[in-house]
Specification:
- By secondary structure, this protein is an alpha/beta fold.
- It folds into 2 domains: 182 residues, 3-Layer(aba) Sandwich (Rossmann fold), CATH 3.40.50.450; 114 residues, Rossmann fold, CATH 3.40.50.460.
- It has 11 helices and 11 strands.
- Helix 1 packs parallel to helix 9.
- The radius of gyration is 21 Å and the shape is elongated.
- 49% of the residues are buried.
- The mean pLDDT is 98.
- Bound molecules: 6-O-phosphono-beta-D-fructofuranose.
- 6-O-phosphono-beta-D-fructofuranose (F6P) binds next to loops.
- Catalyzes the phosphorylation of D-fructose 6-phosphate to fructose 1,6-bisphosphate by ATP, the first committing step of glycolysis.
- Keywords: Allosteric enzyme, ATP-binding, Cytoplasm, Glycolysis, Kinase, Magnesium, Metal-binding, Nucleotide-binding, Transferase.
- Its EC number is 2.7.1.11.
- It catalyses: beta-D-fructose 6-phosphate + ATP = beta-D-fructose 1,6-bisphosphate + ADP + H(+).
């Protein structure tokens, strides 16, 4: 095995650059030739790739987004698309891939390997933290810090005006971001797809606190549970606050990665190359109880990551 390609795919996540930097530098040091593929699987199908050396990844760790750029590629979802990708990789003499992305991207890598024999190692990069068998994905910590910073600002203006804010955060079908951002900001209510929502009970609790003299209210809702508009409709006129809506949106995906994400991504990039060196393919690098481990794609992708029940119970007590 001589030549490795690295790509980032799906929704970007802060820290992806640190993973690219680490994978490239480790691979070069181990004697591999390295190619960067632009725009994920779309760039692969367009043969949009370039040689990368040790200095090609200088000064990128602190940058948000991904210097390799990214995309969600329809053609790669088809077997024909993946067969064409394999031909292109063989034509360019690429022996293995490092794929940095979320569930869809890792599924693509798994199918590519099963159908065409192109070996790969995956690195979980998504702000959603919805990938099983890893405690954290790259980008989650930075996303949470962005949520906390912004919700804290909303709390300031909420207090001045004695208002409620319904804040919608990302996470696709996972409530992880909403739950943890809600805990970290002391939100009055957290609405997540993992458990049924009882608008009556939430409204009553907020109204009682309002009567006791509370002057602000933050309700965090996961996009996968309900829209902020729906939640606000259920709340206004029942909670004693004028209600405003904020959808945090794609700010959650940007920004310079936190120290945690930089270190996590560096460890994962390094471990991905160790795995290639050991000839262990078809695995995702994961963080489990502080350690780097390798988990087969088939295992990772056949399970839905569950939210920690204790966190949910704790949030109920603390909010
Ligand atoms: O998977 C990351 C994510 O940001 C989700 O939280 C969100 O639902 C989705 O991507 C948004 O996708 P897009 O960038 O295509 O708008």
């Amino acid at each position: 095995m001589k030549k490795i390609a690295v790509l980032t795919s799906g929704g970007d996540a802060p820290g992806m650059n640190a993973a690219v930097r680490s994978a490239v530098r480790t691979a070069v040091t181990e004697g591999y030739e390295v190619v960067g593929i632009k725009r994920g699987y779309s760039g692969l199908l367009d043969e949009d790739m370039f040689e990368m050396n040790y200095s090609a990844v200088g000064g990128i760790m602190e940058k948000g987004g991904t210097i390799l750029r990214t995309s969600r590629c329809e053609e790669f979802r088809t077997e024909q698309g993946r067969a064409r990708a394999a031909e292109i990789l063989r034509k360019h003499g690429i022996d293995a891939l490092v794929v940095i992305g979320g569930e869809g991207s890792l599924t693509g890598a798994m199918l590519l390997m099963e159908e065409t024999g192109i070996p790969s190692v995956g690195i979980p990069g998504t702000i959603d933290n919805d990938i099983a068998y890893t405690d954290m994905c790259i980008g989650v910590d930075t996303c949470l810090n962005t949520c906390v910073e912004n919700i804290q600002k909303l709390k300031d203006t909420a207090s001045s005006h004695e208002r409620a804010f319904v804040v919608e955060v990302m996470g696709r079908s996972s409530g992880y971001v909403a739950l943890t951002a809600g805990i970290a900001t002391g939100a009055e209510a957290i609405i997540i797809p993992e458990r049924p929502v009882n608008y009556e009970a939430i409204a009553e609790k907020i109204w009682n606190e309002r009567k006791r003299g509370k002057i602000n209210c933050i309700i965090v809702v996961a996009e996968g549970a309900a829209s902020a508009y729906t939640v606000a409709r259920h709340m206004e006129h029942r909670i004693g606050y004028e209600t405003r809506i904020t959808i945090l949106g794609h700010v959650q995906r940007g920004g310079s990665p936190t120290a945690f994400d930089r270190i996590l991504a560096s460890r994962m990039g390094y471990e991905a190359i160790q795995s290639i060196k050991d000839g262990e393919f078809g695995v995702m690098i994961a963080l489990q109880s502080g350690k780097m481990v390798r988990v087969p794609y088939s295992k990772v992708l056949s399970e839905k990551k569950e939210l920690d029940e204790t966190l949910i119970k704790m949030a109920d007590i603390l909010s």
